Amino acid sequence: MLVLKTLPGNALTRVRVWNCIDQCMKYASAAEISTAEAQTELLDEVDRTATEMFKVESSLESSTEGHWTMTRAGNRDESGFLAMAAEYNLHLYIRADIERGLVIFTNQAQRPLLDYVIVDYKKYPSVCELGSFTADEPVSSLTLVRWLLKRGADPNETYEDSTIWENVLAQARDISKNISISSNTRALILEYWSDIAEVFIRYEANPRINRDSEIGSCIREAFGEWVPERARELEKWIKRSKRRWTLIRKFLVPPLRTRAPLSLEEITPLPKLNRLKSINVPEPSLSERYRGQR
Q1: How far, in Å, are 113, 148, 227, 252, 266 from residue 38 at the CA level?
Q2: Which end of the chain is more exposed for a tag (fewer CB within 10 A), N or C?
Q3: What is the arithmetic mean of pLDDT over 255-275?
Q4: What is the structure's pLDDT at 77?
Q5: What was the pLDDT predicted at 289?
Q6: Mean pLDDT of all residues in 270-283
Q7: What's the pLDDT band for 262 if we cut at 50, 70, 90?
Q8: Cβ-contact 233, 185 below 8 angstroms
């Protein structure tokens, strides 16, 4: 941090500044791991310092518009300091910002944060499980998944034609078929993903999605070979959930809505009255009319 703040004018190149920023982020990560505390003050100071430097130093100007983090080399899908911080092992810092309600990713208005956690956990280590049991194969943070679902995240929300629940099953299915991962590691990882799947089921993941598989069960396809006991347990949870959804008519499309009371003009006559109105009474014969006149 001190080096970043004291760089001489003739050393203020974009490459040199970014090297310093990268070192600051890595030191903050190491400090968080060793102290088990979020380095909020240090990281906020990095953001303030870099913001000011890129604002006033002409040597750091870029043709790229937007936040100063977009001046990094390479293509970036997201901008902003928190999105950049999520690319480092800063679990506690990012978790604290999420709990404060801060927006981590610039595209969160269109894409749910829970979807980032499930799909992009390898790109953003800060949303991986802290202290994952295998360094080579990180896993999405169950702690964060549970926290988001508990606070109202929708497991069935759709982004780019897939629900988050479908993405959970897809992630597990891909891992089960990934022959580059050893058998023992695959079993460990899928045991973990089965816990994520269970949490989703408990928080109203659509049970019918489970049928979208060549063998008739995404759960069995993803977990059956490697963690069969867990697969059977999850299928029991799915069946219970499906029965409950059917009972409360949650599968109805569109769902039942409460209709506003009808006005008097809109009220349709009762079927019996309709039938009476439609009866054709034959006219009396001449003899009947004559008797009536008498």
Answers
A1: 20, 20, 35, 46, 63
A2: C
A3: 48
A4: 77
A5: 54
A6: 52
A7: very low
A8: no
The structure's pTM equals 0.80
**Three-state secondary structure string covering the chain:** CHHHHCCCHHHCCHHHHHHHHHHHHHHHHHHHHHHCCCCHHHHHHHHHHHHHHHHHCHHHCCCCCCCHHHHCCCCCCCCCHHHHHCCCCCHHHHHHHHHCCCCCCCCCCCCCHHHHHHHCCCCCHHHECCCCCCCCCCCECHHHHHHHHHCCCCCCCEECCEEHHHHHHHHHHHHHCCCCCCHHHHHHHHHHHHHHHHHHHHCCCCHHHHHCCCCCCHHHHHHCCCCHHHHHHHHHHHHHHHHHHHHCCCCCCCCCCCCCCCCHHHCCCCHHHHHHHHCCCCCCCHHHHHHHHC
Average pLDDT over residues 221-244: 96
Cβ–Cβ under 8 Å, residues 83 and 104:
yes
Structure tokens at 28: 């903050």
d(CA 265, CA 262): 8
pLDDT digits (tens, 9 = 90+) for 79-135: 899 999 999 999 999 999 999 999 999 999 999 999 999 999 999 999 999 876 666
Kindly report the average pLDDT of the chain as a whole number: 85
Which two tokens mark 16?
């040199």
Across 180-187, average pLDDT = 93
- Give CA–CA dist 275/145, Å, rounded: 60
β-strands 162-163, 158-159 pairing = antiparallel
- Of 184, 179, 189, 182, give the one whose Cα is nearest residue 223: 189
Whether 46 contacts 25, CB under 8 Å? yes
Tell me the CA end-to-end span of the chain in Å, nearest whole number.
Answer: 120
